[in-house]
Amino acid sequence: MRETREDLKELQALLDASLSRSTSHLRSIINTESTLTAEELTGVLTGMCTLALSTVTAKGEPRISGVDGHFLHGKWHFGTARTAAKARHLAARPAVSAAHMRGEDLGVFTHGMVEILNPQHSEPAADWPDLLAYFKDFYGDDFFDWDNEVVYYRLHPHWMTVHAPGVDKLTAVSRS
């Protein structure tokens, strides 16, 4: 687990606020028995989790694609090629939606804004060296030209909810 107590507190506040301002229909599906706490969620979202990421084109058309998601410090982190269409979409329109689903057992749904962690012609995020070390350890130091080939993002969520009727909560907490 990479989350601090403060990370968990912020994530729990986000999860609680998101569910409380959701529609009655969503709250009829996601309730205290079918969701996870921040601590449980961080115990489940380890390693690489495939995300369905939704961006918007210049014409306002939605586009969805898959990315390697890493849930670190209570936020999704993901990368793509600097030349990818989604990189252009995110540079112009940083609002995104992301979903990570494992069959009917787990669904994590997030809306928010992305931050570029390693911009090509300006200073990287303050924690980029630590994140880069994590990514290099995960993928291999020479998997990419890390300075020129890939761009990484952090998704700052303003809404996130979790549907987890098939997750063993005791196992999730023991992994965190």
Automatic annotation (TrEMBL):
InterPro entries: Split_barrel_FMN-bd
Gene3D superfamilies tied to this protein: Electron Transport, Fmn-binding Protein, Chain A
Superkingdom classification of source: Bacteria
Name of the protein: Pyridoxamine 5'-phosphate oxidase family protein
Organism listed in the record: Microtetraspora malaysiensis
